[in-house]
Design a protein that fits this description.
This protein is of the alpha+beta class. The chain contains 10 helices and 16 strands. 38% of the residues lie in helices and 22% in strands. A hairpin with a 3-residue loop joins strand 14 and strand 15.
Length: 426
């Protein structure tokens, strides 16, 4: 009796791979081109290509029919061809999409994706081998390749529920935590505020305001306006001079020359100083406006109905305790125009002071990070923050982005791939 010839199972898997590597890209390209001829033309082209693909794989199935499941009959070989075509094409499209989104660049060169396509179809065919260890090895390689793709995809995903286009610019920023501070969310920047400040509350205004109103009897103030306190209580110190208290500010009202002058200041402002300041009120430029001498304050805007005085102590201004980071990739270096003070501390570090804020600027890794703080923030705090600046973590990017808009779950195949990537690789 003659020796039984070894059945070339590997020849059939190789031919299946070559067939897939030729038919899938040719088929996808032909269907896309046929779309220009209308829906009927594209459907006809797709049908023809499917029949041709199945026929070629059924022919390949005759090479070693005894080595593969479903290879014992003509009908079984056709079923095998259909299964290899459907599974191979689905995995090819899925892998192509995942690799593109992950930025692997596999689709950029036929010298890369063509052999990978052949390997894919060969492995799909190999999962139907009768020799269980060969089938198991084929399935294991497919699973491993899928995990590699998902891991690459997970590395590019923004925090869950966030838009990649929105997150990407923030990932190029430089940030640093500061003790005693927390990031103000949804600002699309690294803005830090003191932890002892309630971000939902509105702090009292530090400004003093001089309002010019039409004349009216003492204590007859509009209770519905919010520009100045209207009482009660309302205390008449003498005819034409009234002290009014409000929930967050106090005011003096002085009736003079057919008008009322109302000087409103924060609760912390001394009552006697407020009265003395109002009694210095006098006409000013522009015509129709009034000014006054308010100790520790300077008029910063003036109009016919309102003059605003800002505190000379800039540490009292709104946001004077806040810290903000700004990153630039294009910069010239050197002191900023308009800085009242500029001190170069090292070739990559300088300090600048402005009228109501100061900054520490650091050059690192081709970027310039500016740490800006109000005048209530110490210079050493800004310097320490600038020296600690680094790219943000995922959680820090999430903190800078606004909450995602409510949306239903992504039930697309790529949505499932992204979910799997997050679950498996974070």
């Amino acid at each position: 009796m003659g020796e039984t010839k070894t059945r070339p199972w590997w020849v059939q898997t190789a031919l299946a791979g070559i067939t897939g590597a030729v038919m899938v890209p040719v088929g996808v390209g032909s269907v896309l081109v046929s779309l220009f001829g209308g829906l009927a033309a594209s459907v006809a082209m797709a049908g023809f290509l499917v029949v041709l693909f199945v026929a070629l794989l059924a022919f390949v199935a005759q090479v070693a029919p005894d080595e593969f499941r479903l290879g014992g009959s003509g009908g079984g070989r056709v079923c095998w061809a259909v299964l290899v075509m459907v599974a191979g094409t689905a995995l090819w499209l899925y892998g192509w999409s995942i690799s593109d989104e992950a930025g692997l660049g596999l689709s950029g060169s036929a010298a890369v994706w063509a052999p990978l396509t052949a390997v894919l179809f060969a492995l799909v065919a190999g999962t139907s081998l009768r020799r269980w260890y060969l089938a198991l090895c084929s399935a294991a390689v497919l699973v491993f390749a899928g995990l590699v793709l998902l891991r690459s995809l997970a590395a590019t995903l923004p925090p869950e529920g966030e838009d990649r286009a929105a997150a990407a610019p923030l990932e190029s920023l430089l940030v640093a935590p500061v003790p005693g501070y927390g990031v103000m969310s949804s600002q699309r920047s690294w803005l830090l505020v003191p932890l002892d400040v309630d971000p939902t509350s509105t702090p009292p205004s530090p400004f003093v305001e001089l309002h010019v109103l039409a004349d009216a009897p003492d204590c007859e103030l509009d209770p519905y306006q919010t520009r100045y306190p209207a009482g009660p209580p309302c205390e008449v110190e003498r005819p034409g001079l009234v002290f009014v208290q409000g929930p967050v500010s106090n005011a003096y009202v002085h009736r003079v020359d057919g008008r009322r002058l109302v000087l409103a200041g924060p609760k912390s402002f001394d009552r006697a100083a407020l009265r003395d300041a109002l009694l210095t009120a006098r006409p000013a430029e522009p015509e129709g406006s009034f000014t006054a001498t308010v100790r520790g304050y300077t008029a910063t805007s003036a109009g016919s109905a309102l003059t605003v005085f800002s505190p000379d102590d800039k540490a009292l201004l709104p946001g004077a305790r806040n810290i903000e980071f700004a990153t630039r990739t294009s910069f010239e270096g050197g002191c900023t125009y308009g800085a009242l003070e500029c001190a170069v501390e090292s070739p990559s570090l300088r300090y600048e002071r402005f009228e109501d804020a100061h900054t520490v600027v650091r050059v690192v890794d081709g970027k310039e990070v500016t740490v800006r703080g109000g005048m209530a923030v110490g210079r050493d705090v800004l310097r320490t923050a600038a020296l600690a600046a680094r790219p943000p973590t995922r959680d820090e990017v999430r903190a800078m982005l606004p909450p995602p808009r409510p949306a239903g779950p992504d039930r697309s195949p790529m949505g499932a791939a992204r979910d799997a990537a997050r679950v498996l690789f974070g």
